[in-house]
Amino acid sequence: MSLEDFYKYKAIQNKLAAEAKVKAAKAAEIAKQKAIDKRNRILEIYGEYYGNLIINRKIVIGMTQQHCREALGQPQRINKTTTAVMIREQWVYSNKYLYFENGILVTIQEF
To answer: How many alpha carbons fall within 13 Å on the CB side of residue 58?
Structure first.
């Protein structure tokens, strides 16, 4: 490889590296904006109290199933018991069980 070819090669490498940096910066900005949009959407839908809990991936007794799903994601498994007066559900996650009565969180079992 001649010295001239080497400099051409290095110029192409530098150009590609600069383009990759610009692309990564744009992707980071898009991801940041998506996170801001998601946070604002959650606060708008669920209000300040529950919204902040959901954003911080926290759950408390009294939350609805939707609150918990937003905070923790989809459970690995749902066990459901239907009686004459209520529906009980056990949601199974890798490190906890959530127990609902008629859609309201009544017990958290962590292990």
So the answer is: 9
Distances (CA, A) of 82 to 7, 85, 86, 89: 74, 8, 6, 9
Between CA 44 and CA 56 the distance in angstroms is 15
Global pTM reads 0.76
Give the Cα separation of 65 and 71 in Å (integer): 10
Asked if residues 96 and 83 have their Cβ atoms less than 8 Å apart, the reply is no
Place of tokens 């839908």: 45
Angle, helix 3-55 to helix 65-72, in steps of 10 degrees:
160
pLDDT, residue 35, reads 95
Q: How many CB atoms lie within 10 A of CB 55?
A: 16
Separation of alpha carbons 52 and 38, rounded Å: 12
Q: Which amino acid is residue 100, in one-letter code?
A: F
Each residue's pLDDT tens digit, 61-104:
999 999 999 999 999 999 999 999 999 999 999 999 999 999 99
